[in-house]
Amino acid sequence: MPNPNPKHLFHATLFLSILLQALSKSTIEPCSNSDSCNALLGYTLYTDLKVSEVASLFQIDPIALLTANAIDISYPDVEHHILPSKLFLKVPISCSCVDGIRKSVATHYKTRPSDTLSSIADAVYAGLVSSDQLREANSLSDPSVLDVGQNLVVPLPCTCFNGSDNSLPAIYLSYVVRPVDTLAAVAARYFTTLTDLMNVNAMGSTAINDGDILAVPIPACASNFPKSASDFGMLVPNGSYAITAGHCVQCSCGPKNLDLYCMPASLAVSCSSMQCRGSNLMLGNVTVQQTSGGCNVTACNYDGIVNGSIVTTLSPSLQPQCPGLQEFPPLVAPPTTVARDTVFAPAPAPLFDGDGPASPKSSLVPSTGLPGGFSPANGPISGISSGASAACSLVKPFPALTYALVLLLVKLMIPVAL
Ligand SMILES: *[C@@H]1O[C@H](CO)[C@@H](O)[C@H](O)[C@H]1NC(C)=O
Ligand SMILES: *[C@@H]1O[C@H](CO)[C@@H](O)[C@H](O)[C@H]1NC(C)=O
Ligand SMILES: *[C@@H]1O[C@H](CO)[C@@H](O)[C@H](O)[C@H]1NC(C)=O
Ligand SMILES: *[C@@H]1O[C@H](CO)[C@@H](O)[C@H](O)[C@H]1NC(C)=O
Ligand SMILES: *[C@@H]1O[C@H](CO)[C@@H](O)[C@H](O)[C@H]1NC(C)=O
User: Fold this and answer.
1) Tens digit of pLDDT for each residue in 160-196?
2) Which of 279, 286, 289 to mutate to test the pocket of ligand 4 (most atoms within 8 A of CB)?
3) For 140-154, 178-192, 372-386, which range has the lowest pLDDT when averaged over its residues?
4) Ligand 5 in reach of 406 Cβ (< 6 A)
5) How far is the CA of 296 from the centre of ligand 4 (A)?
6) Contact 70, 241 (CB under 8 A)
7) Residue whose CA is closest, atom 1 of ligand 5?
8) Across all residues in the chain, what is the average pLDDT?
9) How far apart are the C-alpha atoms of 157 and 394, rounded to whole Å?
10) Nearest C-alpha to atom 12 of ligand 4 is from which residue?
11) Could you read off the pLDDT of 290-337 as tens digits, one per residue?
């Protein structure tokens, strides 16, 4: 007899309702393993905050926050620099696999007087989380009563899609849609196409709503570190930097090609040897020698941090042409104002706006570039083209009415089934 089992129905609905509340309005990526991967959050400051305060909001390294936004870390006292309200930043986070979907659960927030779930969700975390998600994640029975100093888990949206988009390395930015946004403008801002954004987010139309969270692929430089490396899977978005190996190594991506380039970081920290074994080359050094058969290029590359030590590899290669000088993504001074058209993205502005006390003593980027960078055999990386993309879905904001109806129906059906 095909009698609907009310218990199953109830569970299915419960599951559905949890899913809807936890994931509404954002692109979700199913996952099966426990690996974590790298992702970015698009975060808009709700008030003036120090660099260190933004970092502690997400429990990340302030240096990682700065380098991800190509902000000059050699600027005096940069961690205490006050960033202006409304500034848009890319926040690097680790994306885990929890209950079969990708999300970040490493962030905690300590409640302060006068906080409410919606002020935490909408203001402090700028729409990256909803009050419902906060309530669910923290099993709050009465969300109107928040104790001061309560430690809340803040589940944040992230996707990785295997670190690629159309088979090219990419890192995904979780972007909160604002009323002024159009999908085409978001695509243009991040150098991708409308088709690509629609594919990635499994959208049937270009309609987006205020508060939706889009996964935006950003071309990146992929690392090729061994699985045993603690920084395995490092991805550096085009135009930015990453600091790794306990602040000893900095890796950059772009602007000319998407080959990861790593060299010793200029931060004053004690680091183990960064010389390539069997040579006098240091990490990031490249020698070139024109021969009759082509250009003999030898580079000392960074290969991750394994067992707590920096691994370097000497890699010789014969290339048709000698590579030019290594170019670095331009650095910006810590922002002090939000320009009208940079409200949406920190456009690489000209260095230093002049109100800093002094020029930085030393720059993150050496003033004398080294010959470097490989011209990979696999050719130039062209603009993102459209194509089949990873399986995912944009869970549209379910109208509250629909949701209520489902619940109502289930409530009606249970007695009927009994
Ligand atoms: C993930 O990407 C790697 C290369 O980056 C590729 O070898 C692998 O097949 C991809 N896996 C899936 C499931 O797409
Ligand atoms: C990387 O960024 C630079 C500008 O910063 C841009 O000119 C270049 O086209 C970008 N590359 C890709 C593949 O998006
Ligand atoms: C090798 O790299 C180190 C560290 O970046 C740098 O100080 C040095 O000048 C480089 N040497 C050569 C020969 O390029
Ligand atoms: C390339 O240069 C390296 C070191 O400079 C040298 O050992 C090697 O023999 C050279 N290879 C060729 C093919 O010239
Ligand atoms: C790292 O350490 C483990 C155990 O101490 C050892 O088995 C492994 O071979 C080491 N790996 C490398 C690359 O040195």
Assistant:
1) 999 999 999 999 999 999 999 999 999 999 999 999 9
2) 289
3) 372-386
4) no
5) 6
6) yes
7) 307
8) 80
9) 12
10) 296
11) 999 899 999 999 999 999 999 999 999 999 999 889 999 999 999 999
Spatial CA neighbour of 37 closest among 263, 198, 261, 220: 220
Domain ranges across the chain: 241-319
Q: Residue 415: what pLDDT?
A: 36
Residues with CB under 6 A from ligand 1: 162, 164
Of 281, 285, 286, 296, the one to substitute when testing ligand 4's pocket (max ligand atoms within 8 A of C-beta) is 296
Atom of ligand 5 nearest to the CA of 226: 13
Residue 248 structure tokens: 């000893």
Ligand 4 centroid to 154 CA: how many Å? 54
**pLDDT, tens digit (0-9, with 9 covering 90-100), for 399-417:** 333 333 333 333 333 333 3
Return the HEC string of the chain.
Answer: CCCCCHHHHHHHHHHHHHHHHHHCCEEECECCCCCCEEEEEEEECCCCEEHHHHHHHCCCCHHHHHHHCCECCCCCCHHHCEECCCCEEEEEEEEEEECCEEEECCCEEECCCCCCHHHHHHHHCCCCCCHHHHHHHCCCCCCCCCCCCCEEECCEECCCHHHEECCEEEEEEEEECCCCCCHHHHHHHCCCCHHHHHHHCCCCCCCCCCCCEEEEEEEEEECCCCCCCCCCCCEEECCCEEEECCCCEEEECCCCCCCCEEEECCCCCCCCCCECCCCCCECCCEEEEEECCEEEEEEEEEEEEECCEEEEEEEEEEECCCCCECCCCCCECCCCCCCHHHCCCCCCCCCCCCCCCCCCCCCCCCCCCCECCCCCCCCCCCCCCCCCCCCCEECCCCCHHHHHHHHHHHHHHHHHHC
Rounded to whole angstroms, how far apart are CA atoms 91 and 83?
14
pTM beyond 0.70 = yes
